[in-house]
Design a protein that fits this description.
Elements: H1 2-27, H2 32-45, H3 50-55, E1 62-67, E2 85-89, H4 90-102, E3 121-122, H5 126-133, H6 138-154, E4 160-161
Parallel strand pairs: 3-4
Antiparallel strand pairs: 1-2
Helix pairs in contact: 1-2, 2-4
Length: 164
């Protein structure tokens, strides 16, 4: 019994170390492919990655540069706006990964229509959310959040606030 507990603790420590290395890749001098791979690994880690992702929300290192110009709902004949380049921080990307982990993947109400917002869920305080949810399985978290995801789709893409 003691040996099992020690093995679990060692494994958890290794997973935290691995997650920390993956966060370093996100903000390091790495290729886009390496950052994409690290992101996929963090999401694959599921609940085990949540604490390090929350710790990294304030990380101001650059993750990527993207064009953030709004091109939605432009008339067909309109001139495309000029590119507006912005740096996406590691912290901002970690927020996206947190949502990727906790958001259920499907909804019977999902449609092939333009949504109002691409952000399905909103967690206002990840630390408080984690205090309430860390003892739950990821499956239980998905089950609890499924009604919000369904409501998002029923409302054609209005972001749903997660209560905890």
């Amino acid at each position: 019994m003691v040996m099992t507990v020690l093995m679990v603790c060692a494994l958890m420590g290794q997973q935290a170390a691995d997650a920390g290395k993956l966060i370093e890749i996100l903000g390091g001098e790495t290729t886009r492919a390496q950052r994409d791979d690290a992101s996929a690994e963090l999401v694959k880690m599921g609940k085990d990655a949540i604490p390090i992702l929350i710790e990294s929300l304030q990380d101001k290192r650059g993750y990527d540069r993207r064009d953030i110009a709004n091109r939605q709902n432009l008339p067909v004949t309109a001139t495309q706006p000029k590119a507006v380049m912005a740096t996406i921080t590691v912290g901002e990307h970690c927020s996206k990964l947190l949502y990727d982990i906790i958001t259920p993947r499907s909804s019977q109400y999902a449609g092939s229509f333009k949504v109002i917002s691409e952000q399905i869920l909103l967690v206002e305080d990840w630390n408080e959310w984690w205090k309430v949810n860390q003892g739950k399985s990821l499956s239980d978290i998905h089950t609890e959040l499924q009604p919000l995801v369904d409501e998002y789709w029923k409302q054609h893409g209005i972001t749903q606030k997660v209560k905890y």
